[in-house]
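Holo model, 2-deoxy-2-amino glucitol-6-phosphate. Inputs:
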Amino acid sequence: EQINKGKYDHYMQKEIHEQPESLTTTMRGRLIRGGGSRKPKAVLLGGLKDHLKTIRRSRRIVFIGCGTSYNAALASRPILEELSGPIYREDTAVFVSQSGETADTLLALEYARENGALCVGITNTVGSSIARKTHCGVHINAGAEIGVASTKAYTSQIVVMVMLALAIGSDTISSQTRREAIVDGLLDLPNKVREVLKLDEEMKDLAQLLIDEQSLLVFGRGYNYATALEGALKVKEVSLMHSEGILAGEMKHGPLALVDENLPIAVIATRDACFSKQQSVIQQLHARKGRLIVMCSKGDAASVSSSGSCRAIEVPQVEDCLQPVVNIVPLQLLAYHLTVLRGHNVDQPRNLAKSVTTQ
Ligand code: AGP
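Output:
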């Protein structure tokens, strides 16, 4: 039933809209809601329970993945760094792969195993090579993903890596309030994704405006640098329009030269510790008459588009480490609609395979 397109025209479209449910399945049985001060909110990752101590004692934790799976690891890196604290002795290598069969990732797995690292798999495919060859792991349980462009696997991978950070950090008293806020955020995340999916028509309108463009830049930083990379990856792989994710802090070191009244530039400026820096990027782009699309938190549209030509996309605000899950959805929808409007194959873009099993 899952491999049926149901009411949708394409698998990618179905998989984008499935995210409230796939995220719920990813978290099912893994979040402890808590009950007063005696039972704190926490996570339970069965597949790692015999290995968590070793992971905590690692000298380093290294994440390995390609394409979207790489971006998912990048999106979760700051929360892992924040909650895992000092790590020491030997290494833990975490292999992130939707298919569990990517040749480059598998090769890195063989190398890490030979060198004695503890190998953890995060995959969507039970029985896949990566699931079998790692010492332990977590299945993301997002359901079959048929579209070549990874969508729901990306958001579930991030959720699993945030849960991994919570599990590793679970014995640190000083971060308990922060961890509990993240657990609450996770529990409400499917609702927030459901809310952001209502932007479907708005993203279709935007796609209509961009249909003949040659290029789209996407500026992000902090937690949402990964969103910029992943949004640009979605646009280029399915709509065949050039798109580039750029670290906003790098703007003055080159990309600013491209800014004029014509080139569309998406800036991710939702509220988090990087917000004021992103506001200043927006001002500088306005000053150069940039053609901006700003993704901002609910209620911020008027202020971000107050000067210059700008289209604002308002998204619900969530805990900073979960914001990439919400923010990628409008960009997935934009990529989808751009592709349909440009008349390209959504589910099987030219030259690409769902799983890259050769080097
Ligand atoms: C994503 O939309 C791509 N099709 C691609 O980058 C993919 O994520 C990459 O090939 C890794 O695949 P995996 O997660 O199955 O290992």
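The CA atoms of residues 23 and 156 lie 6 Å apart. The chain is about 45% helix and 15% strand.
Archived with the compound record.
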